[in-house]
Write a structure and sequence with these properties.
Length: 130
């Protein structure tokens, strides 16, 4: 089943892809053309995308699959229970992954969105991957 991009997914993508480097700018231009084609069954909020590649230009990333952007997540108490990763295939957005490292703090898309909106992240320590 294919569904339109839900607001929580598009919000998290916008927050993780913020910035003016060419990779992030190109990836943000793809967001209006994305559709959710699947979700992780565990409830974490990870979303897999479909993209009409003929409608957009690929971002200037390495060929193949890779992480194009990431954000560490911090709770109100300063704990870092997980991260959000944005993956591409040949410069096209392919999925948004919500990762949890904690058995004590629930990390899902809703929590990631809340922490990202509150600025509870560490800046991506590395420049965008070409």
């Amino acid at each position: 089943m294919i569904e339109r991009l839900p607001a929580d997914v598009s919000d998290v993508l916008a927050l993780v892809l913020a910035g003016d480097d060419p990779v992030r700018v190109a990836l943000r231009a793809q967001v209006p053309h994305l559709r959710v084609t699947g979700r992780c069954g565990c409830g974490c909020g990870t979303a897999y995308f479909g993209l009409d590649a003929g409608e957009v230009e690929p971002a200037p990333t390495r060929p193949g699959r890779g992480v194009a952007a990431e954000a560490l997540l911090y709770t109100e108490d300063g704990e870092c229970p997980g991260e959000v990763l944005v993956f591409t295939d040949d410069g096209c957005l392919s999925w948004l992954e919500v990762c949890s490292w904690s058995d004590e703090v629930e990390v899902d898309l809703a929590a990631a969105r809340r922490w990202l909106r509150a600025g509870r992240t560490a800046p991506d320590p590395s420049p965008p991957r070409p």
